[in-house]
Amino acid sequence: LFRSVNVDETLIDGDELPYCGGIKVIFTPGHTLGHICLYLKQSKTLIAGDLLCVVGGKLMKADPSINFDTQLSIKSLNKLTKYDIETVICYHGGLYNKNVNKRIIELLTN
Question: Is the pTM of this model over 0.85?
Fold first, then answer.
């Protein structure tokens, strides 16, 4: 059973939600124009949505075939280098926690 809900607030890049020690909204268009990631500051966890995925235990960029704009997605990925990330939760592939910041830089340089 599905119910509709009313949207009563629009999130903006840089907003901080007062939950879990602070959740930073990171505007990361590319997969879709309105895509966001959420960074949980206290636990250093990134909820990456569809910006990243885990394939065979390895953190990867999303397949370009599912992106609205792959170049925009790469620019969005670059924004993540500003954060100290220990764990990533991806909608496709699940959890990744092996030197995340280094892996993101590798993805940007390859």
Answer: yes
